[in-house]
Description:
There is one protein chain. By secondary structure, the chain is mainly alpha-helical. It has one domain (20-171). The protein has helices at 10-35, 47-51, 56-64, 68-100, 105-137, 144-171. The longest helix is centred in the middle third of the chain and has 33 residues, at 68-100.
Amino acid sequence: MNHPLTFISNTARKPVFFVLLAWTLVLMAISQVINAPLVTTAAPSGIVSFELARTPANAQAIIASWDDRIQLFAAFGLGFDYLFMPSYAFVISLACLLALGRHKGRFASIGAWFGWGMFLAASLDAIENIGLWHSLLSPVSAPWPAVSFWCAAFKFALILLGIAYGLIGWILPRKIH
C-alpha cells in the first residue's frame, strides 16, 4: 500500500511538514481560546467532554451547563473544527511519511496505514461534529451522543497512534538504505 502523500517530493516533505505544523499549531491555539468558555463543572474538558458524553443525559447536562453565549462558542468551535481537520490530518500523515522514509520493512509498511489513518480520523471527526450539532441545536436524543462518542474515541486513538509512529520513527536510529 502506498502512503497517501507520496506525491510530495522527497525534497519538499520536510519544508511542507514544518509549514503545516506551524499552521496546525496556530489553529490549535485558536481552538483553545474558543474552548476556554466551554469548561464547566459538567464539562471539565470543554468540547472534549461533550464529544465523549456518550449518552443523551450526559450530553444534555453539558449543554445545560452552557448559557446561550457559551453555546455559540460551542457552535462556532464545531464549525472551526472543519478547518482544523484537514490540517492535522495532513501534518500527522506527513510526519508518518517522513518517519517511514527513515526505515525499511515492516515499520515502513505500517507507516502507509497510519498515513491513511489520519484521513480516516478527520472523517470520523466530521461525522462526530454532525452528531454534536444535532445534540446542540435540537433536543438531545439517541443515537447522536453515542455516534459522537465512538467517532471521537476512534479519532483520538488514530491520532495518538499516528503521532506515536511519527515520533518513534524519528527517535529510532535511521536505517541505511
